[in-house]
Amino acid sequence: DVQLQASGGGLVQAGGSLRLSCLASGFDFDGYAIGWFRQAPGKARVRVSCTSPSDGRTYYADSVKGRFIVSRDNAKNTVFLQMNSLKSEDTAVYYCAAQGGVYIATCPHDFSSWGQGTLVTVSS
Question: Per residue in 2-24, pLDDT tens?
Fold first, then answer.
């Protein structure tokens, strides 16, 4: 049973940093694409990043490229989202998600397994 648990959200000032964690259980990390998503108040959920299972490459949304970094600790089954130079528009509920399958140098369009969200609030 695939389970994901996101944590690490909180209140931070603009320009600050925050690191989110996604603890995974019930599946083999290596065979799954891992995505980070966010949903701002009144807006649709959008993808922030996705790590392809085939080559481990991470793809970032343009809005966070150069500021957010994804890393992972396989021994702890945890994926991290390091968020730097935070802006007020980064305020959202952040989710991690996983999707199994073969994705060569790409990421799936849909994710079937989701963790609960963690709220990030950036004050200006």
Answer: 899 999 999 999 999 999 999 99
Beta carbons of 82 and 17 less than 8 angstroms apart:
yes
Residue 13, Cβ density class (10 Å: 0-12 exposed, 13-18 middle, ≥19 buried): exposed
Q: How buried is residue 110: exposed, middle or buried, by Cβ count under 10 Å (0-12/13-18/19+)?
A: exposed
Tokens in use for 15? 């320009």
Taking only the tens place, the pLDDT of each residue in 53-108 is: 888 899 999 999 999 999 988 889 999 999 999 999 999 999 999 999 888 888 89
Question: For the chain, how long is the longest CA-to-CA vector?
Answer: 41
CA distance 100 to 98: 7
The DSSP result for 4-52, as a single string, is EEEE--EEEETT--EEEEEEEESS-GGGEEEEEEEE-TTS--EEEEEE-
Amino acid at 57: R
Q: How far apart are CA 109 and CA 116, in angstroms?
A: 19
